[in-house]
Amino acid sequence: MKKEKSIILGLLIAASLLLATGCDMGGGTPAVTYAIGDTGPSGVGIVFYVTDGGLHGLEAAPSDQSTSQVWIEGGSTQTTVNGNTSTAIGTGLANSNAIIDQAEHTGSAAQVCRNYTGGGLNDWFLPSKDELDLIWDNLVNDGTNSNNGVGGFDESNYWSSSEGNSSNAWSQTFLIGLQGSVSKDNLRRVRAVRAF
């Protein structure tokens, strides 16, 4: 009887230690959650959107990848992406790849972002129109947002990866938050983002 009590006590102590240190019984590690304004899982980016209780989301690079970049080399004379881009959240990577995969592609804002390797990662991309607007809403906007001013964004125009039509693409001014479809040969800032 005394031996059984010792075994049970030992098991209870071991279980308590596992729970106290955050280890689960399945051998995995506890899930890390993120909030808007946190440093993201890349170790360098700033979280600007979260889903699934902070388990997944989007993070922006800590600084601009370019301060003066056309949307695509050749401007409106470059082959259009032919409606293969979207404005929706979650489409920036596909948009960026569609831009780069054009037969006549020689350079673009999307390529600048795909070349970025912040945190040693190579999955960065040019945000879609709606993803870019989330950056404005959650990190830049002067409203009641506690993360106002996080990320060192300039009060000028930033490109999105969303094409407006064969001649134009969507950009957003970070002075007042307005978005507009402008000529692809305009010069705009570029900030890479990544999903986690």
UniProtKB/TrEMBL annotation:
<feature type="domain" description="Lcl C-terminal">
    <location>
        <begin position="64"/>
        <end position="194"/>
    </location>
</feature>
<protein>
    <recommendedName>
        <fullName>Lcl C-terminal domain-containing protein</fullName>
    </recommendedName>
</protein>
<keyword id="KW-0732">Signal</keyword>
<dbReference type="InterPro" id="IPR011460">
    <property type="entry name" value="Lcl_C"/>
</dbReference>
<dbReference type="Pfam" id="PF07603">
    <property type="entry name" value="Lcl_C"/>
</dbReference>
<feature type="signal peptide">
    <location>
        <begin position="1"/>
        <end position="20"/>
    </location>
</feature>
